[in-house]
Hints:
Layout: H1 27-39, H2 45-59, H3 66-76, E1 96-97, E2 100-101, H4 108-118, H5 125-138, H6 145-159, H7 172-176
Antiparallel strand pairs: 1-2
Helix pairs in contact: 1-2, 1-6, 2-3, 2-6, 3-6, 4-5, 5-6
Amino acid sequence: xxxxxxxxxxxxxxxxxxxxxxxxxxxxxxxxxxxxxxxxxxxxxxxxxxxxxxxxxxxxxxxxxxxxxxxxxxxxxxxxxxxxxxxxxxxxxxxxxxxxxxxxxxxxxxxxxxxxxxxxxxxxxxxxxxxxxxxxxxxxxxxxxxxxxxxxxxxxxxxxxxxxxxxxxxxxxxxxxxxx
Length: 180
């Protein structure tokens, strides 16, 4: 198997000749995924392993596409309590996120195509943050939106030369203020 692409600057990415070698993924990437899961109340090692697989997949992608978004979700949610028709597919029903509703489900494919398009080109940290907020407002999936959203945010950060942003579970109230 070919060696997976490594990103420069130490722990920004991963270096692995095989996806099972998670010990070779950077400490910062592992911490970000562990904390991202914890924000959603997901603490099991199996979910972390799937998050690592999802990260390995997306970080190897040169550009973000709708297909890459769907595949990342499918990988992340593989062992989660979702029916197979919800893993790797946009939702086909309305959702409520706290006190607000997600975008109408019939518009999700169109909104996600526009969101993917908006990710193209060089981005500032503030633009990346706004794209993350936009993703979460679309809320394209039945479950796993926060975790996939943070994966895509950090993918975009790395592609634009920024370090991984670790949002700690203990600081999630500060993070949630992004969405107000």
